[in-house]
Amino acid sequence: MRIILITGISGSGKSVALRVLEDAGYFCVDNLPPTLLRELVATRVNEGIQMLAVATDARSADSLARLPSDIQQLKTQGHDVKVIFLTAQTEALIARFSETRRSHPLSHRLRPGQNPSDRLTLTECIINERELLVEIEGLGHIIDTSDLSTNKLRSWIKGFVDTDHAPLTLLFESFAFKHGVPLDADLVFDVRMLPNPHYDPLLRPLNGRDQPVIDFLDELPLVAELLHDIEGFITKWLPSFKQDNRSYLTVAIGCTGGQHRSVYMVEHLAQHFEAAEHVVRRHRQLS
What we know:
By secondary structure, this protein is of the alpha/beta class. It contains 9 helices and 9 strands. It has 2 domains: about 1-165, P-loop containing nucleotide triphosphate hydrolases (Rossmann fold), CATH 3.40.50; about 170-285, no CATH class. It has helices at about 15-25, 35-45, 65-75, 90-100, 120-135, 150-165, 210-220, 220-245, 260-275, and strands spanning about 1-10, 25-30, 50-55, 80-85, 140-145, 170-175, 185-190, 250-255, 280-285. The longest helix is centred in the C-terminal third of the chain and has 23 residues, at about 220-245. It is globular, with a radius of gyration of 21 Å.
């Protein structure tokens, strides 16, 4: 059975991801306590279900500790288990809860002897949830949804479904430093030292996939030298990441606005590695 486990920080898009998987033909279960995961899998196997998606979160905090061993046991039984961990910057989460006017799931939990009037604030709930989930954050593919639209998140989840059969997916991602470093990055390269096409009025409205921007950067020896160095670093260390049994390796390339230099570098790196590796491109700041 193909199993996708969705977990992560409340407000980061788990419901959106689950709906995408349901549309893709997965049998979906929301807010499942991890203690019931193996029982659910066994039941669905007997019913002939081939694809299962399960969402779980910090509301089942007391049983999250056994999740890594349960996942390993399911893999030992021959199931193809992948994990998506959704997260976001605290500021983005606060804005989302404020927009929807919904309370955080952990705000209703009281410690023994705690007065109901002393419930955690939203920020305290988010911090507490990060602490509860820290042990499972590294179990699978992390997606930082801080600056993602709902449509872009849907697209990224669809891409995960399409590529979750690959031994390792090499994911190149452009981003803007002014929006912060993506939480899902495994490797981060800063290309802000390169000349910026933004200062050319003719290139400013374009991006790194447009030919005039490509021609501008192609003519700069410094760009070619940096590109060669990054290619060499990834080539040298990629075998070690593969030996670590990773499903995804996310290489984030950042410039100031995420429009020109980082996009150009991601496109060239992806083109360089796609002949030998399973490669995915992502551009956080492009529509």
